[in-house]
Amino acid sequence: METPLAFPALHASHAGIWMGTSKVQVQTIGKGEAAGRAAETPMVMLNAPLVAQRLGYADLSGLDLLELFAFIYPARFAVPTPKGMAKALDLTPPATDQEVPQFLLLAARKLLSVLGDAAWDQREGAWDSALALMRLRWPWANLVLAQLKKPERPERWLFSRLPEWEEAPPRTPPRVVTLQADAVQQRLASLVGGSAETRQGQRDFAQAAAEIFAPRTRKGEPHMLLAEAGTGIGKTLGYLAPASLWATAADGTVWISTFTKALQRQLVREAKRIYPDHETFKSKVVVRKGRENYLCLLNLEDALQGGFAGRAATLAHLVARWAAYSHDGDMIGGDLPGWLPTLFRRNGSTALTDRRGECIYAGCPHYKKCFIERAARSSVQAEIVIANHALMMVNAARGREEQNRPSRIIFDEGHHLFDAADSMFAAALTGQETIELRRWVIGPEGKARGRRRGLSARLADVASYDEEGGLAIEMARVAAEALPGEGWLARLAEGTPSGPIERLLATIRAMVFARDETNATESGYGLETELADPDPSVIDAAADAAIALEALTRPLTVLGQRLEAMIADPPDWLDGSARARVEGATASLSWRIDTVRAWIAMLARAVGPVDPEYVDWLAIDRFEGREMDIGMHRRWLDPMKPVAEIVLKPSHGVLATSATLRSGGDWKNAEARTGALHLDRPATHFSAMSPFDYTAQAEVLIVTDIKKGDPAALAGAYASLITASGGGVLGLFTAIRRLRSTYARIADRLARDGLPLYAQHVDPIDTGTLVDIFRDDPHASLLGTDALRDGVDVPGHSLRLVIMEQVPWPRPNILHRARRLKHGGMDYDDRMIRAKMAQAFGRLIRSADDKGHFVLLSSAVPSRLLSAFPPGTPIRRITLDEAVKSVKSGLSSDTNLRQEAGQRLEESNPI
Ligand code: SF4
Q1: Of 296, 299, 355, 453, which is best to mutate to test ligand 1, by the most ligand atoms within 8 angstroms of its C-beta?
Q2: How many H-runs (helices) and E-runs (strands) does the chain carry?
Q3: By CB neighbour count within 10 A (0-12 exposed, 13-18 middle, 19+ buried), where does 571 fall?
Q4: Cα-Cα-Cα-Cα dihedral sign, residues 866, 871, 876, 882
Q5: Helix (H, G, I), strand (E, B) or coil at 661
Q6: Whose CA is closest to 241, among 267, 274, 211?
Q7: What digits encode the pLDDT tens for the residues 338-355?
Q8: For a surface tag, which of 2, 139, 202, 753 has the fewest beta carbons within 10 Å of its beta carbon?
Q9: Who lines ligand 1 at CB under 6 A?
């Protein structure tokens, strides 16, 4: 039975604003009137923050259909648009903006009617949850409770509903096996499927990949293969064939590491072909992410019990509904809708994960149900672990899960290894980092809320049992008071720093402002200067800061030793769970000590000689003129050095693969970017060209008449091309400022023509959801920056034109200059640019049926960079008018003509 709904509905797009009730026809209204009406009466809407943005209204509340959907169908995927909702609810989508308000009311009625449906299988827990939400004045609560039947007996609540993980015995080391070539080919054929043809390139790839599983001949010398396989080779099945064969025969685990979530999801789909039975799949394949991705049940419990207030508390209850039905508790790339936290402006969602390393392990009442612990345990027994580069690096660097150390590793999207390592092995002595450490040691100060506790509260039992340990905790607390506290940024701006670290930051700030030569002062973005010939004031402050940090390291080190002694010679009260907690504390303590030592080493550099292994600089991070962080930074000149030592050398076999592994250079470049260069046993190489017919499927158009630095011309070009293509455009920018200005100029105009435009850094929607929206609507276009250049997998008609506003020149910062100097100057830049252009072009042709244009809106494209595109791709330098005509008429079937024209133009326009 459908529920009557007496509220009006509001819809706002770039094309206008519409309002209606179930009885009254839809009216178009103005922004001011819409905002006024929304403040008086609760209105049904879809994605309130987005509607608020379209109205130009800072805060808008109402009956958000997405929140109702998240309550009724937790952990279910839906694209957060009227069309997406229609699909999820099996309704006819509205054909025009005008029809949307009536549709929203219909969708709301349909959702509310589910609550009375006996077949609704996510009922458990809904009653209690709705009651709690009513107390929080959730706008839907009364409507929901009116439809829900009170359960006859108390229902299982989240924490009793979740299954407990089982402790399993340690895995025995893998057997020594050698894979036979015909067995690999048979496995590949069975994965590809009986009727499908395996391609020669894929067969060769599988054979080459099998070699990394051969028995190792010398310790510290893994078999390493670098494989560049063009898009469409089918490399995932190509390596899954030998990997799964080896894992079963040897009873071992193969770790497959990716960079993007899109590839992780694809791998999960492909791995189902190996283990078609659902239960077997669950036991053999595990997806692993960094712990900060998962919901921490203890943080959630705290949020539900008053730790969160207002809207954040509502979010906590909707997250609790989700957690009860989630497959794995992953809040970032799992089954929590990416749009849910953004409805609450991310208010509180990060505080629900374990971002700060405050886990108390077995001391936690939810330890046996913890999502993180469950994922870590299941990977010990798995045959295939699907992880990401960041997790691989962090586990190796922090010595986590030593007993579960990967020995056979496949790095897909291997061209990103360098960047993943670069951030993992970075050190930053900044205000934000140091205040974080202060909170970890001291705990909440002043009016801070929540369950967060300092060291003394977390280790109270240790302190009362072990006098020396207790003293060390107290000394660490006193020493941590030298670190920056709340309000440090304001104190620095006012010239009243407090304590030795704030004083150091103040001198750094002054030195950066004095020496910065990036001319970024006016633009409001970051400022930096080399750590060379520092001012005497910086040298003095660095010496004082080092003394303060040493004073903190000493008690932390003593505490670590006391904890280790306690584990070695356990007291009576140290039962299994207390032991696990002490072990957990030891691990996070040693990571903190390593961090402080790295800071002290950086300070030594400020007063001493240069260390050629590192690049050091001072920076002020700013966003739109606001200072966000200040401090000293250090990166490895070559971050693959530590990776080779702690990840590659201890393993037995490693495959690094990607469609652009050589990153627009040669194998030497691939060796350097993957760390193979630092191995004693040389890596082997494999390459296979893409099977796609780029001559027939794609065309590159270089537009020669857009004046650089003319925002109106740039926006006009985007609008003309998007209109010519009828949407389906991915627009890539190298600067957020230009993206925003282009979006602001053209979004309304395009919307009136039925061509919705979305943009990263503008729309209050997470990037993953933006891509889902784009994929779902062939008329939509999406603008974005770096994350979209490599993370978008949209095969088919939804993506038929990629526009790059200009050549992606590297940012000329201090770090880039140092690496450029070491790796060949302009050649180094060219390799980086070609790699970025190849990755952007790679978004266009994802399958043998895809067709499309790649447009570069810059005449300054040197010919030497054009090898970024696959051989055979026609390239033309033309005017915007000609480009618009080409895009409008689609790819001509006469590819010869296009290619010849391209060659002629290349010859007459050498650069
Ligand atoms: S074990 Fe740690 S991460 Fe897991 S729920 Fe408890 S405190 Fe959170």
Answers
A1: 296
A2: 38, 23
A3: exposed
A4: negative
A5: coil
A6: 274
A7: 999 999 876 567 789 887
A8: 2
A9: 296-298, 354, 359-361, 364, 366-367, 370, 372-373
